[in-house]
């Protein structure tokens, strides 16, 4: 083990946001960042807007902690019982709670705040970045999106090649449950890929998987962020596994934290 690595500790439970708050778990960083700061990362699990839990998020959260993030995974409300924007509103309250006490959660005054998520959670993370920009707070250092669900039209080549997009597709079912129809699909917080204003957003690392139905829209979103003047790197990986993820995520967290805190990365 790296001599500079932090000690491994089990996740701890907490609640975030207005009482009673969202159930959450904190996974402490397992290694230092090259910048010398700390990255406090709000993690939003996958599950197509209708599934997923803290338990199912644990493996991903541990992997991100191994990459150097102090990870807070939250158990956001699920559709169809809670349609858009319920999950997003709850996640934003949790994000503001993290922004109010970052040093308490990481033990360092040099802490930068990130949003991150996978598939449906990636949608929520991208939307949180838009909300934080529009409301001028909290200040985010970066966004990490893994195979994000960003476009309810489901018309990409990778979606067709994956034989998804029809009424029985899990992504189509997830979008229907989340939006409850087509009238909300035009809202930029619901479908960030269709947003007309993508400038002024934090640095992004967008990870896709070769052959995954969501890979094309992940790459399109990164390209759109760059077209609006943003810093966005997209990578298509063989799989979302430690062997492929740790190095690029660690580098992203180190560099974005350094920029946000003006620490040489």
Brief summary of the model shown:
With 265 residues, the chain is α/β, with parallel strands linked by helices. 36% of the residues lie in helices and 19% in strands. The relative contact order is 0.16.
Key terms for this structure?
eight-stranded mixed beta sheet, 8 helices, 19% strand, alpha/beta, 265 residues, Rossmann fold
- Could you give the order of strands across the largest sheet? 1-2-4-3-5-6-7-8
The major beta sheet can be summarized as:
8 strands, mixed
Number of domains: 1
Find the CATH superfamily.
Answer: Alpha/Beta hydrolase fold, catalytic domain
Give the strand content.
Answer: 15-25%
CATH architectural label: 3-Layer(aba) Sandwich
Structural class: alpha/beta
Helix amount, in percent? 25-40%
Integer-rounded radius of gyration = 17 Å
CATH fold title: Rossmann fold
Shape: globular
Protein name: Acetyl esterase/lipase
Organism: Pelomonas aquatica
Domain Alpha/beta hydrolase fold-3: 41-231
Keywords: Hydrolase
């Amino acid at each position: 083990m790296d001599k500079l690595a932090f000690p491994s500790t089990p996740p701890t439970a907490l609640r975030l946001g207005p009482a009673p708050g969202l159930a959450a778990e904190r996974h402490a960083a397992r290694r230092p960042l090259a910048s010398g700061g700390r990255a406090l990362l709000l993690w939003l699990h996958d599950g197509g807007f209708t599934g997923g839990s803290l338990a199912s998020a644990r493996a991903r959260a541990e992997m991100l902690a191994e990459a150097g993030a102090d990870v807070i995974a939250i158990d956001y409300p699920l559709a169809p019982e809670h349609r858009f924007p319920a999950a997003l509103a709850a996640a934003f309250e949790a994000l503001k709670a993290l922004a109010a006490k970052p040093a308490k959660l990481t033990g360092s005054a040099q802490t930068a705040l990130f949003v991150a998520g996978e598939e449906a959670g990636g949608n929520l993370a991208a939307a949180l970045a838009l909300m934080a920009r529009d409301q001028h707070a909290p200040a985010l250092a970066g966004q990490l999106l893994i195979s994000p669900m960003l476009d309810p039209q489901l018309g990409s080549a990778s979606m067709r090649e994956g034989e998804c997009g029809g009424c029985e597709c899990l992504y189509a079912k997830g979008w229907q449950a989340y939006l409850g129809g087509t009238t909300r699909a035009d809202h930029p917080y619901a479908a960030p890929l269709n947003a007309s204003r993508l400038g002024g957003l934090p640095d992004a690392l967008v990870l896709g998987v070769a052959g995954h139905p969501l890979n094309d829209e992940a790459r399109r979103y990164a390209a759109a962020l760059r077209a609006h003047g943003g810093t966005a790197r997209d990578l298509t990986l063989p799989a979302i596994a430690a062997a492929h993820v740790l190095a690029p995520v660690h580098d992203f967290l180190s560099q974005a934290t350094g920029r946000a805190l003006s620490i040489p990365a």
